[in-house]
Amino acid sequence: MDEKILKELRLILGNEGVSTGQSVRELHSHDESFHTPVLPDVVVFPKNTDDVSRVVRLAYDNDIPITPWGVGTSLEGNPIPVQKGICMDFQGMDKVLAIRKEDFQVDVQVGVVYKELNKMLSRYGLFFPPDPGAAATIGGMIGNNASGIRTVRYGATKDCVMKIKVVLYNGDIIEVGSRARKSSSGYNLCALFIGSEGTLGIVTEATLKLTGLPIGFMALRAVFTEVIDATDTVFQVMSSGLTPAAMEFLDGDVMAVLNKDRGLSLHEKPTLLMEFHGYSDEGLKPELSFVEDICRENRCIFLDKGIGAAERTRLWEMRHLTLESIKRSHPGLMPLIMDVAVPLSRYSDMVGYIKNAVKGLTAYVFGHAGDGNIHVIVMDDPKDRARWSLVEKANEDIVLKALELEGTCTGEHGVGIGKRHFLRIEHGEGLDMMKKIKDLFDPKGLLNPGKFFL
Ligand SMILES: Cc1cc2nc3c(=O)[nH]c(=O)nc-3n(C[C@H](O)[C@H](O)[C@H](O)COP(=O)(O)OP(=O)(O)OC[C@H]3O[C@@H](n4cnc5c(N)ncnc54)[C@H](O)[C@@H]3O)c2cc1C
């Protein structure tokens, strides 16, 4: 990068806020996916909105691409700086600005890590519900509209962000959204930025909607012989009027890996993990027996269950760090992580199709079943072109099937690089409107270029 630009960046951010070091650039060249890394020319570390605005204005005036970066846990190449230029890392913007307990809200800078935020909020009896598992930042969660195991009850990131401060392509700063719990005022620009992966503007601060921490818990682990019995149970629980706080499907291969990696002795069969929240443990008892009935009607062969926070922790422990267990079991191989979602009534069809499509591959099927979201982790070697093309073909077939079933090419991981070629099929002429919006918000095409559009 031009020495003159580096000098100007250092004037804005100080020497410590600008790095061209090889190891720092390497760290920011990839996410957690198999997509090809690209080194940015420089990594910058702003401390506030004004820093971001001045850097973006400099980039705009000099036609330099700029890619926002949370902690790089994306799975579709979303933060890879494919056209090099500036990578903007928000680790220096990690302040909680205001806690408004009485309004169930918190104002944060976007570099805050949501797990740390939730630890802090627990002192107030509150939490920010979207839970993508990895140690993601609020900025990265907004970028990808992340969700997680509790989305089935509490919503995705888009449901829990009320207001954001955004730096636009030329450095101008706007605030969109409202602190009011409802509003019919104008176009929903706040929602437009959420899930736009840094392609429309750079979010610097956010007002998040919080939820009171639940008091009562009950959890179940239900084991089935056939996948269809597990997925039918999902449909029946969801359509029975119950509101699970989490409902996860894991196929028998995932259970086998967990047993092997962690020395467990769980049934290596299709399994559902469920969690329900209530105002008291006592009040959850009738719900527990209702869910048990549904499981048994669907030929559940084993049921472990419990009421209370300790029981919930015991039953869910095995679900954490599933990806890590799978990776550890296949040293030297890379994961391709598929992510589709379908209407609930199509969930059984989708899982059945997937099990067939990945035959012959080293594949693990699991997902946020209550949201119709399903993941497949296929472990293989991207350098073995013949093998990897089979993996990519399965991914393609699975996404196309999800679209045929009126679903979406990505339930939560976003478009990034990996899902760009499905957008035309999913959105048709709607994609042209998206491109017009992109051109309006980013006339020079400098904001996280190479994403969304081919
Ligand atoms: C083990 C594992 C499990 C996961 N499980 C889930 C899951 O259950 N659900 C889920 O949704 N995801 C999941 N993910 C994916 C990932 O963790 C989430 O998408 C997460 O939100 C990314 O956050 P990040 O801070 O790492 O952001 P990054 O990956 O660094 O960035 C994400 C996107 O947001 C953009 N961005 C970052 N900051 C800003 C900003 N300030 N303004 C505008 N754009 C910005 C980036 O350019 C990029 O496009 C998982 C990942 C891993 C590795």
Question: TL;DR of this structure?
Answer:
The chain has helices at about 5-15, 20-25, 50-60, 115-120, 140-145, 150-155, 190-195, 225-240, 250-260, 285-295, 310-315, 320-330, 345-355, 385-405, 425, 430-440; strands at about 20, 40-45, 65-70, 85-90, 95-100, 105-110, 125, 160-165, 175, 200-210, 210, 215-225, 245-250, 270-280, 300-305, 335-340, 365-370, 375-380. The chain starts with a helix and ends in a 13-residue tail after the last helix.
| List of distinct ligands in this structure | flavin-adenine dinucleotide
Mean pLDDT: 96
Helix share bin = 25-40%
Please give the count of helices. Answer: 16
| CATH class group of the largest domain | Alpha Beta
The N- and C-terminal alpha carbons lie at a distance of: 26 Å
| Whole-angstrom Rg | 22 Å
Tell me the overall shape: globular
Structural key phrases:
binds flavin-adenine dinucleotide; 16 helices; 22% strand; 454 residues; Uridine Diphospho-n-acetylenolpyruvylglucosamine Reductase, domain 2; alpha+beta; 5-stranded antiparallel beta sheet; Alpha-Beta Plaits; single chain; 18 strands; Uridine Diphospho-n-acetylenolpyruvylglucosamine Reductase, domain 3
3D architecture notes:
- With 454 residues, the protein is of the alpha+beta class.
- It folds into 4 domains: 3-91, Uridine Diphospho-n-acetylenolpyruvylglucosamine Reductase, domain 2; 96-211, Uridine Diphospho-n-acetylenolpyruvylglucosamine Reductase, domain 3 (2-Layer Sandwich), CATH 3.30.465; 216-322, Alpha-Beta Plaits, CATH 3.30.70; 330-418, Alpha-Beta Plaits (2-Layer Sandwich), CATH 3.30.70.
- The chain is 34% helix and 22% strand.
- It has helices at residues 3-13, 22-27, 49-61, 114-121, 138-144, 151-154, 189-193, 227-239, 252-262, 285-297, 309-316, 322-328, 347-357, 385-404, 423-427, 430-441; strands at residues 18-19, 42-44, 66-69, 86-89, 96-100, 105-109, 126-127, 161-167, 173-177, 202-209, 211-212, 216-224, 246-250, 271-278, 300-307, 334-341, 363-368, 373-380.
- It has a 7-stranded antiparallel sheet, with helices on both faces. Strands 5-6-10-8-9 form a 5-stranded antiparallel sheet. Strands 1-2-4-3 form a 4-stranded mixed sheet.
- α1 (3-13) runs antiparallel to α3, α8 (227-239) packs antiparallel against α13 (347-357) and α13 runs antiparallel to α14 (385-404).
- The model has no long low-confidence stretch (mean pLDDT 96).
- The structure holds flavin-adenine dinucleotide (FAD).
- The site of flavin-adenine dinucleotide has 36 residues, from β3, α5 and β10.
